[in-house]
Every structure is written in C-alpha cells, then in structure tokens.
Amino acid sequence: MTMTTFFVLAGLLASTLTTAQRVVLADIWKPDFELTNGTILGSNATLSKRQFNSVLTQKSDRSLYWINVTIGTPGQKQSMQLDTGSSSVLVPATGSGLCSLLPCDILGSFTSSLSSTFSNTGQSTTVGFVDGGSVTGNWFYDTVRVGGKAIKSQLSVLGTSGSGLSEGVLGIGFPASYPTINHNLAAQGVIASNSYSIWLDSLSSSSGTILFGGLNTARFVAPLKKIPVLGSTNADGSVSYNLPSVALTRVATLQGSTRTVQTPSGYSEPAMLDTGTPVTILQQSLANAVIAALGASYYPSGSTSGNAVIPCAAASNSQSINFHFSGTSGPTINVPISQLVLANLGTVSGVAWCQFGIYGAADSENLATVLGDSFLRSAYAVYDLDHHQIGLAQTLHNGGAANIMEIGASGIPIGDDA
Ligand SMILES: *[C@@H]1O[C@H](CO)[C@@H](O)[C@H](O)[C@H]1NC(C)=O
Ligand SMILES: *[C@@H]1O[C@H](CO)[C@@H](O)[C@H](O)[C@H]1NC(C)=O
Ligand SMILES: *[C@@H]1O[C@H](CO)[C@@H](O)[C@H](O)[C@H]1NC(C)=O
C-alpha cells in the first residue's frame, strides 16, 4: 500500500490527503524441507493435474510456493500451498487421521472448537487427487486472514482422512460452485476486483509475492501484454472458465545467437499457468525437441518420456527458451536455462545430474501443457479473473521500491491488449 500526500497551499494552510489502495500483499515462500508428493485438485474438479514424481533418488524439488494464513478467531496459523490451478481452501483437522500423514505440527492444522467464528455446514465432501488419492472432510465457514486482511465466512474444507495430500491448499483459481478467497476479498470490498499478480522471483530466491487486487510495476519489464483466458464452450453455447489457461503459440530455443523454432507453424495449445505444478509440462513431441536442444535427456537413459535430467553445470550455459503467447502481437517470456536446472539428484560417473524443469506428456492427454513454477519464475503474471484476462511480462529482479497500482472494476490498468 502506498500513501499519496498532496500539499495544498492555501494561504499558510497545508492540508494532507491520503488515498488508500485496495490491495493485499502477502509473501509466498518455498520450503527448505521435503514433503511427500501429491498434487491436489479442486473439489468436484473435472480436469486433472499431473502428478510429479521424483527420479534417480528420493529427492524431489517440488519447489511449490506456500502462503501463511490464519483460519478462525483467534487466528490459527497455517502454511498452505498457493495454487492457481484449483479453487478450494483445504485445511487438515487437528488430531485427525490426515494429520498422521501430514506434518501438521510444522504446517498447521485447524481446531474448530477453538474458533468463535466457526460454523459447520454439516455437509461432507471428498476432494480428489490425480494420483488416485483423496481427502474426506466437512465444509465449514470461518474467517480466513491473508496478508493480514480478513475474509469473513469463507467456505473451506476441514480434512479429516485420506491419502495423497502433502499440505493444506489455498486454491485461488476460477470459482467452482462456491466462492474462492479472492472472489470473497473482492465481494467483501477488501480489493476492488477478483484479481492478483504473482511474482515468484528467481530460482535461487526462497520467496516471492502475491498481490491481490493489484500489480507492482517495479517487478517486471514493460510492456505488460494482456491476453484472453481460454474458456470451454458448453453444449448450450455458453462459455465456462475453469482454469487459468492461455494460448501458447510458439516455442523457440536460443543458443548464443542461434534461434530455433521448435513448434510447427500454426501451433496453438492451451497452456495452464499453474503455481501448483513445480515443473513445466509440454506436449511430448515439443518436450523431446526442447530437451534435446538444451542438452537434457530422459532418465533412465533410453527412455523416451517422463522425467528429464541435465548435467548441473548446464545452468551456466548461454541458452534459453522463448515462450510466445496469443500470436505475433502477444507476450514473449524468455526462460534462461539457469532457471530450468533444478534439484541436484546425485553424481553418476563423475557427472552431477540435476532435475530438468521441463517434462513431456502424451499429446493426447488432457492438459498436456502446464506452465508451472519453472516457467513462472521468469514471468510476472497478472490474473484478472473478472475479465478472463491474463497479463504477462518478463520478470524483473532487483527492481527496487514497489510501485503498486490497484486493479479496479475495469480490469488491468496498464499494458497492451494483444
Ligand atoms: C511462514 O510460517 C513459517 C512457519 O511458522 C515460518 O517459518 C516462515 O518464515 C513464514 N514465512 C513467511 C513468508 O511469512
Ligand atoms: C510419490 O508418488 C508416487 C506415485 O504416485 C508413489 O509411488 C510414491 O510412493 C510417492 N512417494 C511418497 C514419498 O509418497
Ligand atoms: C459437488 O458435486 C455434487 C454432485 O454434483 C453437488 O451435489 C455438490 O453440491 C458439489 N459441491 C460443490 C462444493 O460444488
């Protein structure tokens, strides 16, 4: 939040006027310890996200981003995965079977009897996971605090049993049949629109920020280019927006001054901008081309899909990938190879191997393209859920003091429509 001060000189009088922006800033952070794997879906979700599995060793650089919130009155601390690809708040119940699976002592859990604002709906639900796991719990209403701001009567799931979950989840995607926290922040007047901006900072940084209801021009290289979210057309002709997907229209690899376009002309593929996926998943044929061009390979050697690895030393190569969106006037995000060389998996025959930040998925799969954290760290992404629009610009590290703009009812206030 910034404070604007005007000095109005009228005779000897000076008066001060303060304008407050309706934005909520929260830090998001990467854990420095390992969790079991598992990717959560929104309740009643119709589309699945893919499970991320580790290779070579048990180590996995999940690198998901967490947000600290409180639930209830007085607030009970929770560290939850921040997920643009799902839409539920899911918190484990203290002392439940779920807390024997999750590190509730570290990440938090919720004790409903200690909250004066807790309201049970009496309705149970089951939240499904891609890998076949699921969590059972109850819908409840209570106050959720994010970035110090209260969201009253937020409908959330209190998980009591299940499998496959690694942590609580704060889903901030498009609303399912119930309102998300970002929807409620806007509906309750804390922010001026259902929107937020995500800045993950670089791979070496342990934290980034989410700015609900605003954007920070000191964290990206202008111009910001605005492109439509892809909806799905229903039988009756209406359009539904379920996922933050945009059109990926060209991918090129760069090596020094040599640029190689890796996609066929006319390429256009829905690509989800998902904080809840640690890597970037491309259609198999495209992933194969990019993996080969950057000197990565599949593991185990001889396999033709799945997990990719790269010598860790490649992080200092002068290679990168350009991702182009929504045609020739749309945004281009450059992802340097330094941002794609992830966890060190171990040394084989004297070579240290790292996890590569790009994986392949069968072209036929639903959601074959997911631009996860290994992509998003190179971008500044503004999600305007009210107008089904996403603004993308190249990230800016060390951009100095914040310069925050509110996103009002008319949408993202700056940038070019592509
Ligand atoms: C979030 O909470 C955890 C656990 O209390 C703490 O270690 C961490 O520093 C917090 N992170 C931020 C960004 O507030
Ligand atoms: C991670 O997921 C895979 C595939 O679902 C499973 O086989 C493995 O046991 C999981 N690892 C842990 C530590 O839960
Ligand atoms: C989930 O789906 C069931 C069956 O269609 C429906 O009754 C229920 O209201 C839905 N729950 C939510 C939270 O959307």
Overview of the structural elements:
GO terms for molecular function: aspartic-type endopeptidase activity. Residues 65-393 form the Peptidase A1 domain. By secondary structure, this protein is mainly beta. The protein has 2 domains: 3-30 and 65-191, Acid Proteases (Cathepsin D, subunit A, domain 1), CATH 2.40.70; 218-417, Cathepsin D, subunit A, domain 1, CATH 2.40.70. The protein contains 4 helices and 32 strands. The strands form 6 sheets. Strands 17, 18, 19, 20, 23, 24, 27 and 28 form an 8-stranded mixed beta sheet that branches. It has a 6-stranded mixed β-barrel with strand order 4-5-10-6-9-8. Strands 21-22-26-25 form a 4-stranded antiparallel beta sheet, with no helix packed on it. Strand 1 (8-10) and strand 2 form a beta hairpin. The chain starts with 7 loop residues before the first strand and ends with a strand. The structure holds 2-acetamido-2-deoxy-beta-D-glucopyranose (NAG) (3 copies). One 2-acetamido-2-deoxy-beta-D-glucopyranose binds next to strand 3. One 2-acetamido-2-deoxy-beta-D-glucopyranose binds next to loops.
Oligomer: single chain
Structural class: mainly beta
Low-confidence stretches: 1-18, 34-61
Main beta sheet, described?
A: 8 strands, mixed
What's the structural blueprint in terms of helices and strands?
Elements: E1 8-10, E2 13-15, E3 24-29, E4 66-71, E5 76-83, E6 89-92, H1 104-107, E7 119-128, E8 134-146, E9 149-163, E10 168-171, H2 181-187, E11 195-199, E12 207-212, E13 214-216, E14 220-228, E15 232-233, E16 239-240, E17 245-255, E18 258-261, E19 269-273, E20 280-283, H3 284-293, E21 297-298, E22 308-311, E23 319-325, E24 332-336, E25 341-348, E26 351-356, E27 358-361, E28 370-371, H4 373-376, E29 379-384, E30 389-395, E31 404-406, E32 416-417
Parallel strand pairs: 5-10, 6-9, 14-32, 19-28, 20-27
Antiparallel strand pairs: 1-2, 3-4, 3-12, 4-5, 4-8, 6-10, 7-8, 8-9, 11-12, 11-29, 13-31, 14-30, 15-16, 17-18, 17-19, 17-23, 20-28, 21-22, 22-26, 23-24, 25-26, 29-30
The structure holds 2-acetamido-2-deoxy-beta-D-glucopyranose (3 copies).
Residues 27, 29, 68, 79, 207 line the site of one 2-acetamido-2-deoxy-beta-D-glucopyranose (NAG).
Keywords: Aspartyl protease, Disulfide bond, Hydrolase, Protease, Signal
Signal peptide: 1-20
Domain Peptidase A1: 65-393
